[in-house]
Design goal:
125 residues, mainly beta, 2 domains, five-stranded mixed beta barrel, 8 strands, 48% strand
Length: 125
Amino acid sequence: MFSPLFWLGVTELEERMKGFRCEGCGWISTVKRVVCPRCGGKKFQEVYLSGECRLLTFTRLYAVSEGVKDMPLTLGVVEFDNGTRVLGQITSEKVSVGMKLRLAWGLLRVVDGKKIYGFKFKPEN
């Protein structure tokens, strides 16, 4: 599991996820890459993903990793307005494909007494 410190730029006022846009084709990844898998480009610009996104698909997990307190754990793939897709935890019990969500910073799990924070997605209200 990636450390939540990988994503920078999170403040108490604004929750943003860092992405990397290929300068050749415009494709955005949440993982820093050496070469763009779409066009072979090698130059990337840091961008931030924030605001509204839409749920594409989801699943509920009943057997989860140690330290996860939300049972069942709902994971979903969301898509931002710019087309970037991200996998993450969904904080709502009522979930449906197409629902609007927003990024949220929160506790993911506790392992050996250490709190691990990261991004989740909460309903747009």
